[in-house]
Amino acid sequence: MQRIAETSIRPLVVNRAPGPLRGRLAVPGDKSISHRALMFASLAAGTTRIRGLLEGEDVLRTASAMRALGAEITRDGRDWVVTSPGARGLHEPEDVLDMGNSGTAARLLAGILSSLPFTSFMTGDASLRSRPMRRVTVPLAQNGAVFATRSGERLPMAVIGCVSAVPLNYRLPVASAQVKSAVLLAGLNAHGETRVEEPVATRDHTENMLRHFGVPVSVMENAEKGRVITLRGPAVLKARDVVVPGDPSSASFPIVAALLVPGSDVMIEGVGLNASRTGLFLTLREMGADLVIGNERVEGGEPVGDLHIRASVLKGVEVPPERAPSMIDEYPVLAVACAMAQGSSRLKGLEELRVKESDRLAATVALLEANGVSVRVAGDDMIVAGRTDGQMLGGGTVETRMDHRLAMSAIVFGLAGDRPVYVDDTAFIETSFPGFVALMDSLGAGIADDGSTNG
Ligand SMILES: O=C(O)C1=C[C@@H](OP(=O)(O)O)[C@@H](O)[C@H](O)C1
Ligand SMILES: C=C(OP(=O)(O)O)C(=O)O
């Protein structure tokens, strides 16, 4: 596959929106659910039809990897169709699996490969190659797999799967749905009960979707231990169709833009409302956002709803650390909202931001500082000074560091600020939100009209 994102840089100058943002839109499918849908469908014997799959680069990397392991994956009109011989029919890939920019793809696949009886090699782009893998290799090695990593921690990585995996009993040392999922996926082929304890709840799409594919997964809340998840292997997945809801993390960008651009009135339809993902909506409401959730329903086993957002005067907020997993990818754009709010904000317990596509704590601080915002880090907290009367914001250059969420946050800043914001590279937006600029322009953002300097 061509490494599109690394070969073409797309800088952008973003001016203040020419007027209010208005209209109705739908955001692309949920990235977490899309990865899982392709992976789990490839572990199930038979045919699975997926509606609403995110066609972003990260998810397309997962599709390529599952094809290399023996699943047939094609697009059929609006749907994606996966036909697989099932986990036992998958085979050794002929070449290195390139997971591009995607931590979710690399870490969940490590869990699957660790319990399949062959050897695989995995790599990624410069961003992914810099991210920690020990958080998955340490537990997965305990069930019998062997890993060889660069510098003991990074991709490229070789995975020698084990023939009879030992089930794990593992307490998560970091709040990570990727680590939890890797351990659970390895447990599918182990003989006996796999048990994961998570002190703080993280997104539960793996648990939900494994059940959807016919695997009994038990979840117990325990005052002392937190959430305890168990499943019994060997487990056989049954092919089941999947409907993917709109991604609440992607929705956060048009939401914050609509709140900040005066006079805006935007409706976003079909957004996933899984409680393990909606920390930003709660936080924005605490800031005074006019964000109304309507038409709540269940689609494909996940709660979804329509969001109505009207421009609002926001005030500063304090976000507790235990809320972080439910909004972990939303902090860069929340920080933009905090910079434009009245009064200061403290976002607590952000240590995991340091190991995302970039060091998002440092990169978000740099984004804000370059555009005239006063911001500092104290331990793992970020403290953002709110807007003062007459302060002119914007005019800076944002280095996006191969990080899609920084690129979109910088664009939102530019739309709501006073002076143009120069974004060094927007190409990585393709990993999670293809068509982002066009969609914002359909609301009246006017970005491509005057901002595109290179396609
Ligand atoms: O499981 C998932 O789909 C994800 C989990 C989160 O990562 P961590 O598990 O590293 O917190 C999140 O940041 C990522 O975008 C997607
Ligand atoms: C952290 C993210 O993704 P991943 O870990 O899959 O690269 C993200 O999308 O913000």
From TrEMBL:
Keywords: Amino-acid biosynthesis, Aromatic amino acid biosynthesis, Cytoplasm, Transferase. 3-phosphoshikimate binds at residues 31-32, 36, 176, 178, 329, 356. The active site is at residue 329. InterPro entries: Enolpyruvate_Tfrase_dom, Enolpyruvate_Tfrase_sf, EPSP_synthase, EPSP_synthase_CS, RNA3'P_cycl/enolpyr_Trfase_a/b. GO terms for biological process: amino acid biosynthetic process; aromatic amino acid family biosynthetic process; chorismate biosynthetic process. GO terms for cellular component: cytoplasm. Pathway: Metabolic intermediate biosynthesis; chorismate biosynthesis; chorismate from D-erythrose 4-phosphate and phosphoenolpyruvate: step 6/7. One of its GO terms (molecular function) is 3-phosphoshikimate 1-carboxyvinyltransferase activity. PROSITE patterns: EPSP_SYNTHASE_1, EPSP_SYNTHASE_2. SUPFAM superfamilies: EPT/RTPC-like. It catalyses: 3-phosphoshikimate + phosphoenolpyruvate = 5-O-(1-carboxyvinyl)-3-phosphoshikimate + phosphate. Monomer. Catalyzes the transfer of the enolpyruvyl moiety of phosphoenolpyruvate (PEP) to the 5-hydroxyl of shikimate-3-phosphate (S3P) to produce enolpyruvyl shikimate-3-phosphate and inorganic phosphate. PANTHER family: AROM/DEHYDROQUINATE SYNTHASE, PENTAFUNCTIONAL AROM POLYPEPTIDE. Belongs to the EPSP synthase family. This is 3-phosphoshikimate 1-carboxyvinyltransferase. The gene is aroA.
